[in-house]
Amino acid sequence: AQSVTQLGSHVSVSEGALVLLRCNYSSSVPPYLFWYVQYPNQGLQLLLKYTTGATLVKGINGFEAEFKKSETSFHLTKPSAHMSDAAEYFCAVGGTGRRALTFGSGTRLQVQP
Amino acid sequence: EAGVTQFPSHSVIEKGQTVTLRCDPISGHDNLYWYRRVMGKEIKFLLHFVKESKQDESGMPNNRFLAERTGGTYSTLKVQPAELEDSGVYFCASSQGGGLAGRSSYNEQFFGPGTRLTVL
Q: Per the CB 3.0–4.6 Å rule, which of A25, A26, A67, A80 could disulfide with A55?
């Protein structure tokens, strides 16, 4: 069985500040890990993913995440927030192949000017 | 190339009525998934098609929900009769074919914009 916990349903940062969105997972098998973003009135867009190899993965729009097996975490970071980063972010865990994803409850990021 | 599309974008119906949601996956994608997000909760898996066959329907909440994928192209999800707790956003996703076993066979899921269903 797999599960995902996202700490903080709402996060507010100032423009230019560090963005840190937390994700912890539980998985009985080596996981695939994902971050998706949903902008208003749009579908889910893949930000980045970890499947194997390097534990620090870089995604689009300057985001990155680090897989820490010992902490069962996959936190999402961005050094400097931009107004356009305001959206809802979802962490997800998947198994092998084409199995369905298990999502966290989402974190809404607000960026203050 | 067109992405995953869903119709309608919004639907407002009364309790007891029937609603049919449609998903058109990316052309050539064998895998089609339905997910649902109830207000403020996590996005939950409903079911997974491989071509026209149901691979996994363990997430379907009850027998008021019926999903089909005739011909292995688009899919419909019918809710009959709708209840208040069915309100939420229904997402569809698709991915290319691939095996279930082996870490090398991961296929990215591409999501549609969702259908927001409101049952009054």
A: A67
